[in-house]
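DATA SHEET
Item: assembly model
Revision: 1
Owner: S.N.
Input lines:
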Amino acid sequence: MRIKQAEFVKSAVYEKDYPIELNNMEFAFVGRSNVGKSSLINSITGRKKLAKTSKTPGRTQLINYFKVNNEFYIVDLPGYGFAKVPKEMKAEWGKTMERYITSTRKKLVFVLLDIRRIPSEEDIEMLVWLDHHNIPFKIIFTKIDKVSNNEKSKCLKDIKKKLEFYDDDVFFHSSLNNTGKENILNYIDSLLIK
Ligand code: GDP
């Protein structure tokens, strides 16, 4: 798929504030803070500053909608796993996420995991949560430029001690050199109604 256009539409917390649905499905991205979510959204849309990095926990509570090719939405979900976030903010994050997950929006959620890290309890909880609500999801391993092929195999072996998946059912991506970008875009394209 060629990206001709990508723009920020709006931020939302409640379902009533989500933009009017486009196409048959939207594509949400979630992961722990620093996993490379903003970089990945910028990489696949080819817009360097579309998604802003979420260094400040205060910015993490909103769901950001981006419209691509006037055809579908990319949904930037708030990141999790900030070390120093107050309890109330974590609860707020949970509510915003739950509203999104249980909303009537037709969606596919990409869960981002850093290839070099063993998935955290929060990562696992996220996957279990999606599964529980029957939300289709796919795993994207990020920052794969940081590992050699040998290291990648070793990382996957370690991650599989915590998480079951088939290698050909997950995506591998690098925002540094855009590896894996086409696979993700082609997958999205294959799910859209033309
Ligand atoms: P977010 O908090 O999940 O949105 O993560 P960011 O996109 O802000 O990225 C967090 C940090 O990881 C930044 O310093 C990025 O430059 C770096 N980063 C993100 N993606 C990649 C990648 O694919 N390769 C490398 N080498 N660094 C990355």
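QC remark: The longest helix spans residues 87-101.
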